[in-house]
Amino acid sequence: MSIIEIFRSVYINISGNKIKVLLTTLGVVVGALTIILVLSIGNGSQRDIEEQFKSLNVGTIQLMAFRTNKKVTDTQVEEILDEVSTIKEASLMVMGNGTLNYDGDDYGISIVGASNNINKIVNIPLLEGEYISEDSENDKVIILGYTVASEYFPDDISSAIGEKVILNGKRYTIIGVFDEVGGSSIRGLNIDEGGIIPYKVASKYVTGRNTRSSIVALVDDIKNVEQASVEAQEVLVKSLKVKSDNVFAYDAGSQLETARDSANTMTLMLFSVAIVVLFVGGIGIMNVLYVSVKERTREIGILKAIGAKKKDILLIFLIEGILISLVGGVIGGIGSIFVIPIIGYFDVSIVPTLSVYVIALGFSIGVGTFFGYYPAYKAASLKPIDALNYE
Q: Which of 379, 380, 391 is CA-nearest to residue 292?
């Protein structure tokens, strides 16, 4: 049989059983649609994670001492820079809370006190103004987060530069406004809701000199983060003369990987559910083809009697199963175009890509091929005399 005759036979059978084929296709439609949605939501989760961590250099390490009366100082910063060759920048940092007041309006914010090189360590872009400089590291100046600045200067954020605000009773000059980052940009702090002031000023007027400082450092290469973290901890243990349990190191890169792994695990679990749904649809295809073989047994006998080969019969039923699953996959893909906006309406981050549709269609065709092969093989294996005598 020619390929045209094979496809003609497939078309005749499908068009003659439209309702049965349509109902069989529904399982594949739901399976393909589920795969598209699951993978798109997974992509959305990955994007959200990237957005959350984009304001941190993944080579950033934060070191602190706890459960001890020893405190980190500039001495430890210098020792880390001298002894850990893979660390290229380091700075003391302190965190606290304060009440900001502008034009009589109070706003509770989180405050970071940092040295003038913090802009080289933490990748938080400025929307307006400038970072703390060597000349201003002893001055009462502040860089506001985007949300705070928007609260006070909703019409024109750039007008914030040079304005005076009151922080914990002291007057500060606004020298910059951070761009919106939408997440935790420094460990434990959403910079959109906070601000940065010079370290010495923060220690004196915001957190107090008894507050424990930490060291934030930038490694020269992401591949060296783990080793640099270990070495920096060893330097602190030795310098402060404390136990290793009293020094803690946090790095953004490992947190990013952990978040990615969690998102991937959840996506994989949901993807497994989608595959089960698709396989249920595949069982439906196999069932329809089995019934079709029974109904067309005499036809198969006639085709073999007039010269149709085993592979021709195999192809007729196999192509029929593949077409059913292909149509189901295409309908599922089209359906997702309407479903995705509905899901997005509920603030679920969903990012469909071409690869998502290709994967869904590939699995649909694969299921049709897998579950369609055995019925096709059974049909092709029928002996002509038995088929012709079948009642």
A: 379
Q: What integer pLDDT is reported at residue 129 of this predicted model?
A: 94
Determine the pLDDT at residue 75: 92
The DSSP symbol for 337 reads: H
Q: Are 61 and 219 in contact (CB under 8 A)?
A: yes
Low-confidence ranges of the chain (pLDDT < 50): none
| Structure token digits, residue 1 | 């049989």
Sequence-distant (≥ 6) Cβ neighbours of residue 60 within 8 angstroms: 121, 122, 216, 217, 218, 219, 251, 252, 253
- Which residues, 6+ apart, have CB-to-CB distance to 164 below 8 Å? 171, 172, 173, 174
CB 143 within 8 A of CB 195: yes
Strand-strand pairing, 170-178 and 105-114: unpaired
Domain limits, the chain = 3-52+258-388, 69-241
Q: Across the strands, what pairs with 174?
A: 142
How far does the chain reach from its first CA to its final CA, in angstroms?
25
Rg (CA), the chain: 33
Task: Give me the residue label for tokens 């040079």.
Answer: 162
* Amino acid identity, position 356: V
- The structure tokens 């084929």 sit at 21
Whole-Å CA distances, 202 to 56, 138, 148, 161, 309? 22, 10, 18, 20, 87
In angstroms, what CA-CA distances link 30 with 84, 114, 345? 56, 54, 21
User: Residue 69 gets which letter from DSSP?
Assistant: S
The two structure tokens encoding residue 66:
């706890």
Q: Give whole-number Cα distances, 51 to 56, 180, 340, in Å.
A: 10, 11, 21
Cα(60)–Cα(109) distance, integer angstroms: 24
Count other C-beta atoms under 10 Å from residue 299's C-beta: 17
Helix H segments across the chain? 3-16, 18-53, 74-83, 118-121, 146-152, 199-205, 225-240, 252-295, 297-305, 310-345, 354-380, 384-388
For residue 91, give the amino acid letter: S
CA 196 to chain centre: 29
Contact assessment for residue 53 and residue 255, using Cβ atoms and an 8 Å cutoff: yes
User: Count of CB atoms within 10 A of residue 88's CB?
Assistant: 16
What is the rounded distance in angstroms from the CA atom of residue 90 to the CA atom of residue 78? 8
Cα–Cα distance for residue pair 15/225, rounded to 1 Å: 63
The β-bridge relationship of strands 194-198 and 105-114 is: parallel
Alpha-carbon distance of 321 to 312, in angstroms, equals 14
